Amino acid sequence: MIAQVVKQYAGRAVTGTRHRLIYGSVLQFLTLLWSTPGCQVRNTAFIERLNGTFRSRLAVLGRRIRRSARRVATVVGGMYLVGTLYNFCTPHTSLTSADGERQTPALAAGISEHVWSVGELLHYRVPPARWEPPRRRGRRSKAIQALCDRWCSDHR
Asked: Residue 128: CB partners within 8 Å, gap ≥ 6?
């Protein structure tokens, strides 16, 4: 679900807010909203905290910087790295477990079983995506079809 809160201003003061559902159905949104204990209001605090983390850890996203990134790929790679470190390596006080231990967002969501070290994260090997042959018009030759069958099989 993606909801948007648009603040309305009069000068520098916030006079009101408008709420919009960007992605997802209203029924799913209301079910999720009312099933979460203590969270019956759309709140921007969590995403603002994440935006602040990105700005503080990735210099090109800072508010007052001397220079912007030369390539978009640099910013995208940096955002993936900062986001992964945030979710797997950084325990948060607000995510304290019942036994008093601070957790990472990945631990709280059940994606991970432990707090990752930065070295462990950087050395983790991600398997490549399944190979898909390029799309071409016409029928493939038998040799190309045999090669595609060999490389696209589900046997790894």
From this structure: none
